[in-house]
Amino acid sequence: MTVRQLSLLRRLAPALCLVAGGSIIGTACDSDRVVLADDPKGSGQFVSPDAGDDAYSMVNELTSYCPSNQCPADRVTCPGSRFPCDVNLAVDQQNCGACGHACPSHTRGSEFVCVDGTCQMVCQLSPTKYLDCDGEVDNGCEANSESNDNCGVCGNKCDPDKPCIDRGGGDWGCGCLDHKIYCTTYEAFGCNDPQVADKACNGCGNICDPADGGGKEPLPNAYFGCVGAECGHYKCEKNFADCDGDLGNTPSNGCETFIWDEQNCGGCGIACAPGQKCQPDIYGNAFCACPPGATYCGTCYGAWPDGCTGQCVDLNSDVYNCGACGVGCGFANGNITAVCEYGSCSYRCQAGTANCNGNIEDYCEVNIDSDPLNCGACGNVCDAVAGQACVHGRCAVEPCEEREAGAPQ
Predict the structure, then answer these.
(1) Residue range 20-49: average pLDDT?
(2) Which of 117, 261, 304, 348 has its CA 20 to 30 Å from the CA of residue 243?
């Protein structure tokens, strides 16, 4: 549109808002009428290329839009609605598929969620994983994945000598893996490798005496344990290693290397980069901390390194260590979420909500997704006289011709 065309059109229709491609042009807007350019191909033009300078032809190609109280296809107004068109039947737990049709509450290892207007059962995954093995919705997820009848998956039955156990990381299966044996003794409960397990050497219940080497001399930082399913062999104490390989030879300096220094971090020859230190990770294992831009935050319940854990964090963005180690921003409450920005704690409202009164105590108290008085933003008011609805944070409109055609006679 040329400057001449725009000037002429403004004189012809000074109270119209001209809209194209989602952008408003013109400053004098009638709250009851919005005009959209007809541009079905999305060319970015306000008028057809052959319109020429005839401003009247441009006016004929514009569509007038008026405030609407009609709900779009994905929204309805239910008897318990607070605002018009504020219920999404596709996902609303209390109005799933129809007003008043609430999804069932939690029952026997399961919960129900509204998906595409249908209440669907989802089995509980934590702290115990449950399964729906009989396919019956009425009794929920009736099977425990940690049982011998349905170990890990439905129908996986375990023999008494190979019970259903956690093989590590939540992998439940019948018996142990990797040639390990399952022990029920207090000292060696769980899976053990009988070739090297000091508490189950060559079988459950066979505990090696760390001081009994069958007449062998004790060595520095070493004890006698299980090697090759046999007790009485030299083994390194925790936190030490035999990096020169002379353990068991004569003479021997035992386990001479402390594996918590920057040259041997967690093992022989594992060197840390300049500026990094050997620290315990979240599991207590040695690692090099930290890469540039991160800070090590750790906690000890005894002498370092035993009983210590930690991790590398970004103090600029970590909500549990914001600005300094141990400075947390708190947990999310209601519909507000705590965030760490540039080392300072702040709070954000979840999508569709806003804190319009400035009081953090009542969280984000306004539903800007559906509230006609705060539609999309605090204080953005829809046309109350026309009963205009707020849908997805925008004041609803419809073509004026359709509205006038549907008006009561």
Answers:
(1) 38
(2) 304
